Amino acid sequence: MSEVPEFGKKRKRVEEADSATDKDEKANSSINVLDTTNVAVSEDGKISAEEANRAPSQDSKKEPFVTAEDDRSKLGKEYCDTTEKGEVGASENPRLENRKRTRDSEPDSEHVPAKKTHTEAVAAHYNKLEEVGLEQRSMSRIFYLRNFNNWIKSVLIGEFLDKVRQRKQNITVLDLGCGKGGDLLKWRKGRISKLVCTDIAEISVQQCKQRYMDMRNRGRSNDRIFSAEFITADSTKELLSKKYSDRNMCFDICSCQFVYHYSFETYEQADMMLKNACERLCHGGYFIGTTPDSYELVKRLEASQTDSFGNEVYTVKFQKKGEYPLFGCKYDFNLEGVVNVPEFLVYFPLLVEMARKYGMKLVYRKTFREFYEEKIKNEEHKMLLKQMQALEQYPADEHSKLVSNTKDDYEYAEGCKNDEKMKLPLGTLSKSEWEATSIYLIFAFEKQL
Ligand SMILES: C[S@@+](CC[C@H](N)C(=O)[O-])C[C@H]1O[C@@H](n2cnc3c(N)ncnc32)[C@H](O)[C@@H]1O
């Protein structure tokens, strides 16, 4: 068999391993085993591209919580109906107004000392996150999960850069919620010309800038590297266009990776982030990203006996089961024991409606699982998966150790081991990691106007 990435106690440096995301993810274990040579994916559970790209209205039929109290898809439409001035007409509808106000979005009473807002808490959380060295990261329980998420981002970014490059060479990108610069290498590899990095967490932005400078300095003198600017701002509350060095800045791509869900606390915040993502996109430009799939979250919550669910890798805790307001539907996300960060449910059909205000049309919506199943058929993507060590070798060899000690985590891989068609070793994600990553979906909108 062809070369298998080196796995083990000291997992080797991965291409872009230093760009692992801060946040990562479940799945039907029936697809999570790959033969590292053939990368064979079992047939069951495949979802057609047509369905993956289903329209929001069709989409909502699949979502159990749509059928609950009212038709949320319709509500979303109502919520986004704009007045002639372009203002949202929700306040004219008391029912919607009620839904809009949630405990989280109500102003504090005068007598109550001001609490840290959720956005402040998010910024503080990310600012506190230390940059972990490769050595330490390679020992992480979610090493493969992070690499897998990173692979997803790489393929997504590469795909849309290719689309843009078909019509122009000088590509400008907005990395909205750039964090510590986890995607810088992807932008370099994508040979873009200009990058604007922005995040609410000041320390993250500084680290992102430093990483960029280091990348520049490391490069050879004739290496062409994109120019960049860095902006610390709360994109749910501040208008980014006022902060660009060039007032006329336009982007070919806005990339928003694992970020947009922080904005769904209120309509105003979600709208502002959307505005920041889309208003400066060129005609034919793309707003691409990754965010938790509200359908998956609610499905898992409803299946749970309590108001939370998860496993040893991640937990999600909602405030209440059965009530899912369109905005401010808060849940705490905990990954690998790292402090809870408040996130908000993004009802996707609503986002699709809201985006129309900015001339954006949904062109792409796939769960990570669907995306993976589709992209793995491509040899280049398959190679990248290996290079990035996005899957764990199963069974482990004598020099290595599996990331999970739980047998159950490799139940499916174990089953596949005896399949004659599968060449050993297999590539897999432990069930717990797969359960965490399969919460997410990928989206892409295209600017029409
Ligand atoms: C999970 S991290 C993802 C970082 C990066 N996009 C990546 O994929 O590696 C989420 C990022 O969103 C940022 N963020 C959260 N709320 C934000 C807001 N209101 N405005 C700007 N950035 C925000 C956080 O500070 C954090 O860096």
TrEMBL record:
Cell compartment(s), UniProt: Nucleus
Keywords carried by this UniProt record: Methyltransferase, mRNA capping, mRNA processing, Nucleus, RNA-binding, S-adenosyl-L-methionine, Transferase
Basic and acidic residues composition-biased segments: 13-27, 43-87, 94-118
GO cellular component: nucleus
Polar residues composition bias: residue spans: 28-40
Top enzyme category: transferase
PROSITE patterns, A to Z: RNA_CAP0_MT
Ranges of residues in domain MRNA cap 0 methyltransferase: 140-448
Positions bearing the site annotation: mRNA cap binding: 180, 186, 211, 261, 343, 440
InterPro entries given in the database record: mRNA_G-N7_MeTrfase_dom (IPR004971), mRNA_G-N7_MeTrfase_euk (IPR016899), RG7MT1 (IPR039753), SAM-dependent_MTases_sf (IPR029063)
Alphabetized GO MF terms: mRNA 5'-cap (guanine-N7-)-methyltransferase activity; RNA binding
Name used for this protein in its record: mRNA cap guanine-N(7) methyltransferase
The species this protein was found in: Eublepharis macularius (Leopard gecko)
Taxonomy of the source species: Eukaryota, Metazoa, Chordata, Craniata, Vertebrata
Gene: RNMT
